[in-house]
Write a structure and sequence with these properties.
seven-stranded antiparallel beta sheet; single chain; alpha+beta; about 25% strand; FAD/NAD(P)-binding domain; 2 domains; binds dihydroflavine-adenine dinucleotide; Elongation Factor Tu (Ef-tu), domain 3; 21 strands; about 400 residues
Length: about 400
């Protein structure tokens, strides 16, 4: 005999727990299944352990998807203010770090404890360390076969996230279920991920790992002004993670290494003042010494300013404005914060997150082809899409 419930949610991450809360509050019997030992593991490690739980400025333009309109409905019905209200009702202290990014003062675990309490209050049951072996459509809904036995439910919600960080249990399960039911999946790739450089470029950047600088990173018309970090494998830091979601193999990105300084004017003024100073000395006053060294050697402008041709200074200034990099690749799902692509939004109803062709089957969170920028947007999508499905199941 199969156990019976109204809603089965597979995945006790951000989206699945929010969906369970909303469905439970509506009086639905909810069972949440997860193969992990603990719920919300990505919440726990997020934001350096403090969880950047939303972004107060979140808007549809902060999300990548083949259909940029799809996310609008869910985001409008559950906003960053709604989530912040929940956080405040639970007395969790928070602060804005930068660019609208809200973090817990103490620990990301506060967010998990809050969601678990809300789930309990809503009567939703959580079953951990439970494997799902198969999912079938039945006359009245779905049968989910688990390591704890079969469960029948009228509604099934897939909230198993994407492929990023496989060592934390990411499986690509959602895409297999989508394909099982004949739903298209937009090709997936790692997003918000450090980019790697070829051995030749790495050799040219010897001594740079650990150097951080604020840059404007550009890919086509997209640009982000944030910090960048040189690493032993290539480039990282928020500016690079942001642009990585737009970058494709073979593409070039450009970096403005001194967005606040008109370098040509600065060097011209410095030459007038004291032509004996070396270019590198002047540059080092405005950027890390190692970066100044690298730029001087790449632009061949070593020596006292008075002896450097104006044309060469222009070239150096241009080099700093448009530092071109052709990454060899990315660090992949091993370190990617998110998975781009996923269940094709054309297959889903944007109000309910239900598959148009399979009544009762919903996909939420990172599994769907909606991916946020870095900065709390991905959790906001998890809360909003979980809320939308929770109102409908
Ligand atoms: P999520 O991945 O959270 O949950 C999926 C759940 O399904 C997991 O509990 C998993 O165990 C379970 N599962 C998977 N396969 C299963 C199977 N076959 N059977 C049963 N259960 C299964 N975002 C943000 O907005 N602010 C931030 O600060 C950060 N920081 C951050 C840091 C790091 C290191 C990473 C990797 C990611 C972030 N993110 C982030 C992104 C954010 O964590 C992510 O977008 C959300 O967790 C997605 O929520 P979901 O609920 O969709 O999936």
């Amino acid at each position: 005999m199969a156990e019976k419930t109204d809603v089965v949610i597979i995945g006790a991450g951000a989206a699945g727990m929010m969906c369970a809360i909303e469905a439970g509050k509506r009086g639905r019997r909810v069972l949440v299944i997860d193969h992990a030992r603990a719920p919300g593991e990505k919440i726990r490690i997020s934001g350096g352990g403090r969880c950047n739980f939303t972004n107060i400025h979140a808007e549809p333009r902060n999300f990548l998807s083949q259909n940029p309109h799809f996310c609008k409905s869910a985001l409008a019905r559950y906003t960053p203010r709604n989530f912040l209200g929940l956080v405040e009702r639970h007395g969790i202290a928070w602060h804005e770090k930068t660019l609208g990014q809200l973090f817990c003062d103490h620990s990301a675990k506060d967010i998990i404890a809050m969601l678990l309490k809300e789930m309990r209050d809503a009567g939703a049951e959580l079953r951990l360390m439970t494997e799902v072996s198969s999912v079938e459509k039945t006359a009245t809904g779905f049968r989910v076969s688990t390591s704890g036995g079969p469960v029948d439910a009228a509604s099934l919600v897939i909230a198993t996230g994407g492929k990023s960080i496989p060592k934390m249990g990411a499986t690509g399960f959602a895409y297999r279920i989508a394909e099982l039911f004949g739903l298209r999946v937009v090709e997936t790739r790692p997003g918000l991920v450090p980019l790697t450089l070829d051995p030749q470029s790495l050799a040219a950047h010897e001594g740079m790992p650990g150097v951080a600088v604020e840059v404007v990173a550009r890919h086509g018309k997209t640009e982000f002004r944030e910090a960048m970090l040189f690493t032993h494998r290539g480039l990282s830091g928020p500016a690079i993670l942001q642009i990585s979601s737009f970058w494709r193999e073979g593409d070039e990105i450009t970096l403005h290494l001194q967005p606040d300084v008109d370098l040509a004017a600065l060097l011209a003024a410095a030459r007038k003042e004291n032509g004996r100073q070396a270019v590198q000395t002047v540059l080092s006053e405005h950027m890390p010494r190692k970066l100044a060294q690298l730029l001087v050697s790449q632009s061949d402008v070593d020596g006292p300013l008075a002896e450097v041709a104006g044309r060469k200074i222009e070239m150096l200034a241009d080099h700093v404005r448009r530092w071109r990099i052709r990454p060899a690749g990315s660090e992949g799902y091993r370190t990617a914060e998110v998975t781009l692509g996923g269940v094709d939004t054309d297959e889903l109803d944007s109000r309910t997150m239900a598959a148009k062709s399979v009544p009762g089957l919903h996909f939420i969170g990172e599994a769907v082809d909606v991916t946020g920028w870095l900065g709390g947007y991905n959790f906001q999508w998890a809360w909003a899409s979980g809320h939308a499905a929770g109102q409908a199941v």
